[in-house]
Amino acid sequence: MLVARLLSGVVTNYTSWRTIYWLAFALQYLIFALLWLFMPDYPSANPAGITYPRILCSILTIFLRHPLLVQACLVAFCTSTTFTSFWTTLTFLLSAPPYTYSTLVIGLFALIGIFSMLLTPFFSRLVTDRFVPLLSVLIGLACALVGTVIGTYTGNTTVAGPILQALLLDFGIQSAQVANRAAIYAILPNARNR
């Protein structure tokens, strides 16, 4: 995601906005072809012989049996909505007055996400690994909420508002996702791929 935001800003600055979509189209088919050619054919990891429809039904029963999955799904849904709405509308905010930034400068805002990428492993070691994952989720959601409030009320007057919002929102959402993943993996270790 970080590279995609940066790349789209740079490419759009020098070419048409449609070019990034054609580039993504070509890269997806290139990856498909490379996977088709070079991905090894592993033997089945399903010794019990469970059929595919049965595996799909088991996802629903796992979901209904473990309320932690429901909680994690709701948190992921709400945070991804916040994340997507911020990064989508940020382009409109920064391209309009008082900023009138070019798409290149707007694309460089993606580099703010490096902060959360670097800070989240330390946060996970200090908080998520020592305490229950719910505490990390709540701290992450609080950071995202503070960032949203700061960006909402200062975004039209100073560029520091969207920068702080991007920092806190990225960090908060990423730390909440890492904590949710740690909690989910502890439920059924043999069903991680579902």
Structure description:
There is one protein chain. By secondary structure, this protein is mainly alpha-helical. The chain has 8 helices and no strands. The radius of gyration is 20 Å and the shape is globular.
Mean pLDDT: 89
Classify the helix fraction into a percent range: over 70%
Number of DSSP helices? Answer: 8
Number of strands: 0
Shape label: globular
Sheet-strand content, in percent, reads: under 5%
Structural class: mainly alpha
Biggest sheet layout = none
- N to C succession of SSEs: HHHHHHHH
What does the radius of gyration come to? 20 Å
End-to-end gap = 23 Å
Which regions have little confidence, pLDDT < 50, spanning 5+ residues?
none
Topology:
Blueprint: H1 2-14, H2 18-38, H3 52-65, H4 67-95, H5 103-108, H6 113-128, H7 133-154, H8 160-185
Which descriptors would you attach to this protein?
single chain; 194 residues; mainly alpha; globular
How would you sum up this structure in a few lines?
The protein has 194 residues and is mainly α. The chain has 8 helices and no strands. Helix 4 runs antiparallel to helix 8 (160-185), helix 6 (113-128) packs across helix 8 (160-185) and helix 7 packs antiparallel against helix 8 (160-185).
